[in-house]
Amino acid sequence: MNCPASLSIVIPCYDEEEVLPSTYARLKELCLGWVNAGKITEYEIVFVNDGSTDKTFDIMRGFFESDQNVVVVDFRKNFGFQSAISAGLYAAKNEMIVSIDSDLQNDPEKIAEMVAKYYEGYEMVLGVRKDRAADKFFKRITAQLFYKLVSFFGIPSVYNHADFRLLSRDIVAELKNFPERARYLRSLIFSVESKYACVYYECRARALGRSKFNFSKMVSLAIDGITSFSAMPIRLISLLGIVMFLFSIIGLVYTLCVRFFLQAVVPGWASVLLIILFLGGIQNLSLGVIGEYLSKLYLEAKQRPPYIIRREYRHK
């Protein structure tokens, strides 16, 4: 790899007016230090406004007007975190492209280690949390459950890696060949590159504001991640259907044997009702899973863009 190389930092934002000033100041300080130390040749900071409803965009515009190294991508509406990251990656012009959360709970100083890995020949460097001790109990449990499900369904991923990563410009160019609307970059990147390095960091507490990534968004991201990269849920439904069919045959044979050979009637209306309720629940669950896949096909078939940019602000 070229050493030193140029660096772009992508920051997706939705209603982050509280944290943006300190985030920008910290990243600018670090980037200038890396330039002066000869670790990078130049840098740019790419802010993506994901349809914010507060003063986030105005703050970004202020950064842009006072700093030649700032780029602003302004969405027409909120398209979601993964779309915002994608737009920022595609807007970035430098050789190394890092995506990082706007609240800097991902340690920005670790970007220097990512850059060092890039110079060692890795075009994909993943930021991985050392642990989840800082998380609340519920979030820690649900995160562990999600990663276990991802592993069970055979979806490529790295445990405790979110969206803090470095990608080469070539890998980002390859990602453009994947046009799907429901994007799950944590696994999509492995469709492009299998060789990667990891940089481990401690997740910091959020200094200001509150996270906009609520429980419903986490569930939506998990569903997108599973249904976009694995057909196993559909196969499990088929397998469950076969197992239930076999059990019903066994139950039928047992009932007939008791009735005709023992001259008795199998009692148990309560158990029959429970079985009916159980089967009804399984059917509804199966329809829900199938519906998720059908809705994804429906959205992809319409070929709507994953995001719409109102304007990109860039210094010539």
Automatic annotation (TrEMBL):
Organism: Candidatus Magasanikbacteria bacterium RIFOXYB1_FULL_40_15
Domain Glycosyltransferase 2-like: 8-174
Compartments where found: Membrane
PANTHER family in UniProt: PROPHAGE BACTOPRENOL GLUCOSYL TRANSFERASE HOMOLOG, UNDECAPRENYL-PHOSPHATE 4-DEOXY-4-FORMAMIDO-L-ARABINOSE TRANSFERASE-RELATED
Protein name: Glycosyltransferase 2-like domain-containing protein
InterPro entries from the UniProt entry: Glyco_trans_2-like, Glycosyltransferase_2, Nucleotide-diphossugar_trans
Principal subcellular localization: membrane
GO molecular function: glycosyltransferase activity
Domain of life: Bacteria
Membrane topology: Multi-pass membrane protein
A GO term from the CC aspect: plasma membrane
Keyword Cytoplasm: no
The entry's keywords: Glycosyltransferase, Membrane, Transferase, Transmembrane, Transmembrane helix
Bilayer-crossing regions: 236-262, 268-294
